Amino acid sequence: MRRLSKLRSEVESWHALSQRNEDALELSRLGDDSMREDITRELSAIETELEGIEFSSLLSGKYDADDAILAIHAGAGGTDSQDWAQMLERMYLRWAESRGFESEILDRSEGEEAGLKSVTIVVEGEYAYGYLRSERGVHRLVRISPYDSARRRHTSFALVEVYPHVEADTEVEISPKDLRIDTYLSAGAGGQNVQKNETAVRITHVPTGIVVTSQNERSQTQNKVNAMRVLRARLLDLERQKREDQMAEIKGEHVSAEWGSQIRSYVLHPYQMVKDHRTNFERGNTNAVLDGDLTDFMEAFLKSGA
Questions:
Q1: FRET pair for 153, CA 20 to 30 Å: which of 109, 129, 199, 266?
Q2: What letter does residue 57 receive in the DSSP assignment?
Q3: What angle, rounded to 10 degrees, do the helices at 36-56 and 295-304 form?
């Protein structure tokens, strides 16, 4: 029913735009100069709406309209990279909020001194996956390190992974006998109850070696549900990429979060610039980007067909 409603809405948008175009043509044929300004304004509005509809066709992948699971992992760079991972977490949460999307942190592993080792977030909203899939890859930060007493410039890396979040899909069958489930004490927030009980869950999918964890909930049952959500999404992504015959990009071939493999660079010193290396799209307002102003980068990626 959701798919039917979406398709009906798309068809109705095209029909409505076609009718507006016909109406504008009819008015132009009347040859009434007093209506010239109104017709010009309407044509401009039609053109703008057409561009929007044409762009939406770039989000026509099988899972583009679905929710997304976003995972961020600190890479090479020690404490600076863990801080960078936390900055990226904030950036994506701000982006989701700006679009009216709902976000939920499924798993979060704190860094030893600061920042994050990793975080997994589910983002719920129309075309969340379609937009966020453009963020998959290594993100590079260049800045004066706040953790270096000599105030030297440091380069940090973090890996962003994005999967479609589909609650149930016939393409993914998970057999209980293929799972190894371990429980352990949570290291996250939650007070004494979390620390005393083994509420955190680690699930290993033995055939693929994929490991997922969840520890943000007080309940072991809820953590298991969240871990299974992430596992299903990762297995679905694995199958999707196999079908597309792009084995070099699947999780089985590790993407190293280090120099030379970045998709985007965020330079805060000696100048300020955010540049996407796949599309060459760049912005000078780094603060706005780090505050979640990312849609232009995502749309440039989608338009490029990269």
A1: 109
A2: G
A3: 80
Comparing C-alpha atoms, which of 215, 97, 114 is closest to residue 156?
Answer: 114
Sheet with strand 153-165: strands edge to edge: 102-110, 116-124, 67-74, 153-165, 137-144, 262-267, 273-276, 282-283
pLDDT tens track for 167-197: 665 567 888 899 999 988 876 544 444 455 7
> Do 204 and 80 fall within a single domain?
no
Task: Please state, in angstroms and rounded to a whole number, the distance separating the CA atoms of residues 213 and 182.
Answer: 9
* CB 212, CB 227: distance < 8 Å: yes
- 184 and 163: one domain? no
CA atoms within 13 A on the CB side of 240: 18
CATH label of the domain that carries residue 218: 3.30.160.20
Is residue 162 located within the same domain as residue 54?
no
Is the pLDDT at 164 greater than 50? The verdict is yes
Same domain membership, residue 237 and residue 188: yes
- Are 140 and 155 in contact, with CB atoms under 8 Å apart? yes
Q: Which two tokens stand for residue 152?
A: 């030297």
* Bridge partner residues of 40 (DSSP): none
Q: Are residues 20 and 149 in the same domain?
A: no
DSSP single-letter state for residue 1? -
Size of the chain in residues: 306
pTM for this entry = 0.75
